[in-house]
Specification:
By secondary structure, this protein is of the alpha+beta class. It is built from 17 helices and 22 strands. Helix 4 crosses helix 16 and helix 10 crosses helix 12. The mean pLDDT is about 95. The protein binds one RNA strand of 78 nucleotides through strand 1, strand 2, strand 3 and helix 2.
Length: about 600
RNA sequence: GGGGCCGUAGCUCAAUUUGGUUAGAGCAUCGGACUGUCGAUCCGAAGGUUGAGGGUUCGAGCCCCUUCGGCCUCGCCA
């Protein structure tokens, strides 16, 4: 077998005259009857091979049999291409290799799709033949970025004194949070492991064990419906530190983020990254992961709206709701039908019951802006001016408003704001706007179950000053949690944890978790807390989303080598699949169809 | 569980106002030609159960029902 001396992205003019051997796949094939050109491809690049019938008739004859994606070993001499024959698109484009020995290492069936325009090929087909899809430089680049990010991460945490420690995949199911993937136990009949949704409690136990600083690049599993940026199995960069407060955790980890963006994209992330309170994020952007690449803040005009003659607004504010919205610069170009069909339907998808709008028009006579809309008649000239001032609106802008409870209004306005920004081309794709969201509420009230839920998770510590409100006003307690957000995408989140057993017990109580339940689910952990738990905190980054940002894709499957479809199937291997009856017998399981 | 978009040759797409001869094109494939190409070019050939099943009709890629699959999304994701 021909062993390669170089790879296909390596040879340059300086190698002229060298005897070399290359291995790779036939990327393209150009037969001129006499001369034959082969572009040979491997992970590193493409090099042109030449077969000349005059000097090497035997090899030339053989070369004419070659086909795309065949696997070759080839030896020959590097030579400069002639004047005007270089290919500036290739790093190796100044040279070519004149082949005197060719070995077909393997033939290949014609690929089911062409590699060079696979971007427009049905993704289903790419997933079925993932081995071919992953030959494409575009996909290999994403895999490489992912590799480099994990490498940087390991080097960084190592240099900061963190140890990488593995935690179990076969764990204990806890009904909180997402649905668990269950694994039946053979030895304990009728019992199940759960695959981890995150190593949360194990990493806290490691702190109690005095490990001091831990990290892990770890697979996590959540059995929920996938999305464009969500897979049932995904990877976290999981971190925990002892004897720290939030500032310590934030400091170390934003330096990692800055290093990754510097090394991968050459972007300088200003450290410290700015911080924004949860309250402000919700007020100004309607969401706890604001996209700060553009402004277009939300404004609350409830007071003005309540004074108007518009019944929907008056009633909503009267019931304690709000009238809130934003002003889209240049949005005046949208037709009434754009607004009342497209945007209203869009908002309705997010639960909005309606969408009010004003076009800002120039009043030539008064030499100032005015509002035009089917509901403009319900507003006095003064009220209209107040609205224009509130939004700092200019002629040809579009003001969009939703009247509802604060939560409901925010829920629809946040995605609507993004949609308008995209429609109006307000987003610079080359910009990365980082922000830490801090001062989250510890709890949110769960109307349905008549109890509080953790906004983050039940092990998050309250801010010390708010501690006394645990008994009196739980809803107003802030937590020591922090999320890092880039361009509207949450790439990481964490908190300082509760390290005192009595406070942990109190929080469980507010979450309506009984002592018995707490013992069943987290007994081992409550026990561990009693044996000298240090103050500690940590964070977890979503590696997949981070790599998505770094490779500028909005499809999580593009950054996972072997991803699954929306039904959680692997089209390459055809998992999940039925199993042998004997396997079920071993597990004492019986299947049934229902519904 | 709900909503939306999609499925025609190996791939990407066409196929005329509810329907009307033999379902077309580009790329890929196969064969031939060609001394310098690099998305080679030129000539030719082959390639189809229109995702599947049923229905309406004289006639269905097109209309109706069922079903399978993919993507986006709401719910869900402590």
């Amino acid at each position: 077998m021909i062993k390669r001396t170089h790879n296909c992205g390596q040879l340059r003019a300086g190698d002229t005259g060298s005897k070399v051997s290359l291995c790779g796949w036939v990327d393209s094939y150009r037969d001129h009857g006499n001369l034959v050109f082969i572009d040979l491809r491997d992970r590193y690049g493409i090099t042109q091979l030449v077969f000349n019938p005059e000097t090497q008739p035997e090899m030339h004859r053989l070369s004419r049999q070659l086909r795309c994606e065949w696997v070759l070993g080839a030896s020959g001499t590097v030579r400069m291409r002639g004047e005007g024959l270089t290919n500036p698109k290739l790093p190796t484009g100044e040279i070519e290799v004149l082949i005197d020995q060719l070995e077909v290492l393997n033939t290949a069936k014609t690929p089911p799709f062409e590699l060079d325009n696979a971007g427009s090929v049905d993704e289903e087909l790419r997933l079925k033949h993932r081995y071919i899809d992953l030959r494409r430089p575009e996909m290999q680049n994403k895999l490489e970025v992912r590799h480099r990010v994990t490498k940087i991460t390991r080097d960084f945490y190592d240099s900061e004194g963190f140890w990488e420690i593995e935690t179990p995949f076969l764990g204990k199911s806890t009904p909180e949070g997402a649905r668990d993937f269950l694994v039946p136990s053979r030895l304990c009949i009728g019992e199940f492991y759960a695959l981890p949704q995150s190593p949360q409690l194990f990493k806290q136990v490691l702190m109690i064990s005095g490990i001091d600083r831990y990290f892990q690049i770890v697979r996590c599993f959540r059995d929920e419906d996938p999305r464009a940026d969500r897979q049932a199995e995904f990877t976290q960069i999981d971190v925990e530190m002892s004897f720290v407060d939030s500032d310590d955790v934030i400091d170390v980890n934003e330096r990692l983020v800055a290093r990754i963006f510097k090394e991968i994209l050459g972007i300088d992330v200003k450290v410290p990254i700015r911080r924004m309170s949860y309250r402000q994020a919700m007020d100004d952007y309607g969401i706890d992961r604001p996209d700060l690449r553009f402004d277009m803040k939300l404004k609350n005009i409830s007071e003005i709206a309540a004074q108007s003659q518009f019944k929907v607004f008056i009633d909503t504010v009267g019931r304690g709701g709000v009238v809130k919205g934003f002003c889209a610069p240049g949005g005046g170009k949208f037709s009434r039908s754009d607004i009342e069909k497209t945007f209203t339907n869009f908002a309705a998808d997010y639960g909005a019951k309606g969408l009010a709008w004003f076009k800002v028009v120039a009043d030539e006579q008064a030499k100032k802006a005015d509002l035009a809309s089917s509901i403009a008649k319900f507003f006095s000239p003064q009220q209209k001016q107040q609205i224009i001032e509130t939004f700092d609106a200019k002629p040809n802008d579009l003001i969009l408003l939703i009247a509802d409870t604060m939560d409901a209004a925010n829920k629809a306005l946040a995605p609507l704001r993004i949609k308008l920004a995209k429609e109006l081309d307000m987003i610079d794709e080359n910009v990365y706007e980082f922000v830490w969201i801090v001062d989250f509420p510890l709890f949110e009230w769960n109307e349905k179950d008549n109890r509080y839920d953790s906004l983050h998770h039940p092990f998050t510590a309250p801010v010390p000053q708010d501690l006394e409100k645990l008994d009196t006003d739980p809803a107003s307690i802030r937590s020591q949690a922090y999320d890092i957000v880039v361009n509207g995408s949450e790439i990481g989140g964490g908190s300082v944890r509760i390290h005192q057993p009595d406070k942990q017990a109190k929080v469980f109580k507010l979450l309506n978790i009984s002592d018995t339940q707490a013992q069943e689910r987290f007994g081992f952990f409550l026990q561990a807390l009693k044996y000298g738990a240090p103050p500690h905190g940590g964070i977890a980054f979503g590696l997949d989303r981070l790599v998505m940002l770094l490779t500028r894709t909005d499809n999580i499957r593009d950054v996972i080598a072997f991803p699954k479809t929306q039904k959680g199937q692997c089209l390459l291997t055809d998992a999940p699949s039925e199993v042998e009856q004997s396997q079920l017998d071993d597990l004492n399981l019986r299947t049934q169809t229902h519904h």
